[in-house]
Design goal:
single chain, Creatine Amidinohydrolase, Chain A, domain 1, Creatine Amidinohydrolase, 2 domains, 12 helices, 15 strands, 33% helix, globular
Length: 461
Amino acid sequence: MSTMPQPGLPDSPAQLYRRHLETLDQFLVKALAQAATQGAPFDGVLFHSGAARTYHADDQEIPFRPAAHFHRWVPLTTPDHWVLARPGRKPQVVRVRPQDFWYDTAPPPVSYWEESVALHEVESFEAAGRTLRALGLDRTAYVGPDGDAATTLGLAPEAVQPEALLAPLDWYRAYKTDHEMRCLRRAAVKAAAGHRQARQAFENGASERAIHWAFLAASGQLEKEVPYETIVALDAKGAILHYQHKRGPGAAPGKVFLLDAGAAHEGYAADITRTWCVNGTDDTFRALIDGVDALERQLVARVTAGRPYLELHVDAHRRVAALLHDLGVFKVSAEEAFERGLTAAFFPHGLGHHLGLQVHDVGGHQKGPDGGRVPPPEEYPALRNTRILEPGHVVTIEPGIYFIPMLLEPLREGVGAGRIDWALVDRLTPLGGVRIEDNVLCTADEPEDFTRPLIEGPRGA
């Protein structure tokens, strides 16, 4: 069957997936060659989805997620599956489907990928081992979360998670194929539907818990299917960056609502944040929301090839300084506030991160395909990405401004306390903070924002 695009017709998932495998094969060739130069010669890689685990002294299984390197090859989400990848050959996929009346073991409905691989179905982990040994595992590396499984297959210790191979595999995860972009876009559509419904629930006076349920229902997800725990924060809780609770009716309604929530499609994540407010909210805080939204759009426009991500992060701090000066929080000039590092207490996290099969995708601090590390600067320790942007990179852009007492107290008590209007800070602190986040593709031309067109905002109700 031809996978060539037909004029005037969009590529089918099967066509995109086949070209995706061709690209992964090219990455595999480069990764194996790089590993060989580091004294780790292999002819192929055995990717493992991982094994199911239970809670300590319990028979309840911990929610399972497949290892990301495995998941990049096939969209299987359950334990004990394998991909044997060798350059220039069809991937050999061993899918374990036990006979069981306790759980449903039917194959997933997504099957567009099966014709592009050599699929072997077996009934047990042991049968999978026999199949893999028959396929041949000489000079094969293991990449996965279960070293004991690799030992059971007879692989040498030096073939298990070899760093010389993991480094290039991690590096090339940043370059998304058209298949991966399709999945990321589909995830964004789901997440955006959830955000729109969650905003409506907030404006109707719902609690954090009820807003969370509204998000799940509208995005079509179960709790275990979201790519990360939703952050559903009313008022002051929006200043807790990874706020994990969902309060009931006693904490509702709120004036300000921060939602950091995503969705997944075939393992690929959307990661979106919006901040909303209702009529009657402090005018300065309303202006703060609009200001963060405006500077976020400006930063998104700068996601261009060849630009260091660190440059965007520094620019974000300059823009935060200007906004806080314009709103009267900083009594000194924006330039002085920036130079003195005053913005760090109001914007303590990094501007964003790579996005893909993991919400905080791997390789953000990597120096190159052969490894090495480019750590974040000392003044920005939370920055997750120090790479230079290239076409195919998908990153988040998520500036924020928060009123966090534990970070602000040292400034209040320091010699430079007079540089900040503390009366204004105290007025805004009960409203928490603001974060706006979109998912952005770096291209050879203009950046593509996957999420902004799906959610308008952030004007208050």
